[in-house]
Amino acid sequence: EVQLVESGGGLVQSGGSLRLSCAASGFIFGNYGMTWIRQAPMEGPEWVSSINAWDNMTFYADSVKGRFAVPRDDAKSMLYLQMNNLKPEDTAVYYCAKGYGTKWSDFGAWGQGTQVTVSS
Description:
- By secondary structure, this protein is mainly β.
- Helix content is 0%, strand content 48%.
- The chain has no helices and twelve strands.
- The strands form two sheets. Strands 2, 4, 5, 6, 10, 11 and 12 form a seven-stranded mixed beta sheet that branches. Strands 1, 3, 7, 8 and 9 form a five-stranded antiparallel beta sheet that branches.
- It is globular and about 40 Å long.
């Protein structure tokens, strides 16, 4: 059974940093690209970042480029999202997802999410 479990969210002041983690199991993690998606209250999902499996090439939404990084550790089946210089508009539930896409139906699986709240 594929499982993705996010952690590391919390409340942080504007300008602060957080590091989210996603523990993957039930599939060969190193064979798959992975994605972070976020969803703010009353809004649809927003693609944040993706990382390839074969070359670790990373991709970022313009809204987070230069502030977020998405490393992965294939030996531990872990995906991370390092978030720096956080802004109130980054407030959302953050999900890691197996594969690539911009809407929920694009993904093979996603986790339960972790709440990130940025105060101004």
